[in-house]
Write a structure and sequence with these properties.
The protein is mainly alpha-helical. The protein has helices at 2-17, 29-44, 49-69, 81-109, 136-144, 159-164, 182-203, 213-221, 223-238, 272-275, 277-298, and strands at residues 127-129, 168-170, 174-175, 178-179. It folds into 3 domains: 35-105 and 244-303, no CATH class; 127-179, no CATH class; 182-240, no CATH class. The protein contains 11 helices and 4 strands. A hairpin with a 2-residue loop joins β3 (174-175) and β4. The two termini are 32 Å apart. The chain crosses the membrane at residues 56-79, 86-104, 184-202, 222-239, 270-289.
Amino acid sequence: IESLFGASLTGIAYSLFAGQPLTILGSTGPVLVFEKILFKFCRDYHLSYLSLRTSIGLWTSFLCIVLVATDASSLVCYITRFTEEAFAALICIIFIYEALEKLFHLREIYAFNMHNNLDELTSYSCVCNEPPNPSNETLKMWKEKNVTAHDISWGNLTVSECKTFHGVFVGSACSLHGPYIPDVLFWCVILFFTTFFLSSFLKQFKTKRYFPTKVRSTISDFAVFLTIVIMVAIDYLVGVPSPKLHVPEKFEPTDPNRGWIISPLGENPWWTLLIAAIPALLCTILIFMDQQITAVIINRKEHKL
């Protein structure tokens, strides 16, 4: 939520002072990949992500001011149509890859049995059992909860409760992480492709022969928005528990023990303040290219904007 809040403030400031209120700022493909790589790096090396991101953000701000002071935007005149198309293609490829990656990841979470027999569906089952050789970690957890293996009604536990007590799933309807759940995965695949084809169809609606020109052009302009509303409504009515975006209920920092102001150092070593200049240079290049090329594409004569 800190990133969303920061992006919102940046977007408002840009709209008020940059002279292009119709340009909506947002993280595009390259910046999104940068954020993901940085987050994984911090997780692997046990660094505070928000503190390091704050350091990089301050360095990026300084470098962007240097670019403005040296009138680096004048270099935009050397950006050719080929560069624009290559950058636009890169953004498209990144978002397509991200979408497909999420879909493949769902196959691991909501696994399905590829070798089942429809005639034997009545005999398929998946139950929670006591772990045959509980680890020290499991025994410690039971002790903290003041229970023993005999106190737990293993057969009556839900999937989440079974995972909480480190139980094991036994039965022909079990995958590695619990019962097979084919409907969620296949419903997500249907939503995925239907959203794509419906938005493509509505985007080209202005060339169709139905309805007056004004209606066709309005539908075409709001094709993506209409598609999302339609598909969310269908998903809600069908009722399959497809994964949803978890939105915080309150407007507060991600960690209740932390305020809105993030220290550039935080729990990280002092040298991260200096080393942050290297990823900041990459981030500056991405933002500069992103903003400048996007502005060039938007301000083309054919777009009348």
